[in-house]
Design brief:
The protein is α+β, with helices and mostly antiparallel strands. It has a domain of about 30 residues. It contains one helix and two strands. About 0% of the residues are buried.
Length: about 80
């Protein structure tokens, strides 16, 4: 497999435009798109994290020392449960 980096543009008609170097032979290819900038393509409604009703629900829990670890354990329990839900 041969890999190369090509720069191109997406047109308003949603077409990919790139210049193919002459050393690349005709044939099937696989294209992986990486967006060059972090600009947002769609406008989202900005909402502060602390405006969410669940924000801070673990703040006063003395039995939870590491909230990230606790959340990971909760996710694992949900993924591994066998009650069909």
């Amino acid at each position: 497999m041969y890999a190369t980096v090509l720069k191109g543009q997406i047109t308003p008609r949603r077409e990919l435009v790139v210049q193919i170097p002459p050393d690349i032979a005709p044939g099937a290819i696989e294209v992986i798109l990486l967006r060059a900038s972090l600009e947002k393509t769609t406008k989202r409604h900005a909402r502060s994290r602390n405006a969410h009703p669940a924000f801070g629900i673990w703040a006063r829990r003395s039995d939870i020392a590491d909230s990230a670890s606790f959340a990971t354990q909760l996710r694992q329990r949900v993924e591994n449960r066998s009650d069909g839900n």
